[in-house]
Inverse folding.
């Protein structure tokens, strides 16, 4: 298993590569600054990663991930996202609080949890507006297969991700589904999810009249301007 230092270097190289053109190398000076180390320290680590076929290194030029290095970096990033989801959806922390905690905890996730890629992707999709409804329907329609893919810990994360819903219908659907499809050790997480959905519904109901009034005012203003 790679050390946390190796994983951090691979993750940072991956992030530095994203704005670059295909095949362009990450400058060593930029990488050293991002890792908060001296250029010599960064070079020593990169040479070791190159020997392990995790990066391509050109002296005095830069570095880029190989295919195996990229796969490992993506795996670390998925674990980071999983830890963030767990801290927010299960422990109730705010998104603004969890990044630094996840930086430490992503390396301590057990092998059993590390292999939960399918379940991780479902939890992440539940947390995104554009995929939420489709993902929820998939989970409901394929529950017998889905539940085989996660540990109790990952099950709690999946249940916690449903807190992103914000309607009475979705709340009732989530509550009914998990009352008949039990997830081990997730009762408290489900309770928190329902509470968060209720809070979102209440906030939306309070804001809707003001939003409607503002839109009507804007509509009249634009109409008057047109004349």
């Amino acid at each position: 298993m790679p050390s946390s230092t190796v994983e951090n270097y691979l993750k940072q190289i991956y992030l530095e590569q994203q704005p670059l053109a295909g095949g362009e190398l990450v400058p060593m000076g930029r990488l050293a600054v991002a890792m908060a180390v001296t250029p010599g320290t960064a070079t020593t680590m990169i040479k070791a990663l190159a020997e392990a076929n995790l990066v391509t290194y050109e002296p005095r030029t830069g570095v880029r991930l190989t295919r195996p290095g990229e796969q490992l970096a993506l795996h670390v990033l998925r674990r980071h996202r999983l830890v963030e989801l767990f801290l927010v959806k299960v422990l109730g922390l705010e998104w603004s609080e969890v990044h630094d905690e996840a930086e430490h905890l992503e390396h301590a996730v057990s092998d059993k949890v590390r292999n939960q890629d399918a379940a991780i992707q479902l939890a992440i999709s539940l947390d995104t507006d554009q995929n939420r409804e489709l993902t929820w329907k998939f989970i409901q329609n394929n529950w017998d297969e889905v539940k085989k893919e996660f540990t109790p810990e990952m099950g709690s994360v999946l249940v916690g991700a449903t807190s992103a819903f914000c309607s009475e219908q979705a709340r009732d659907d989530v509550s009914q589904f998990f009352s008949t499809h039990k997830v081990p050790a997730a009762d408290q997480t489900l309770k928190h999810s329902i509470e968060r959905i209720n809070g979102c519904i209440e906030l939306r109901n309070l804001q809707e009249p003001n939003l409607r009034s503002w839109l009507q005012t804007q509509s009249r203003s634009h109409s008057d301007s047109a004349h």
The CA atoms of residues 79 and 138 lie 22 Å apart.
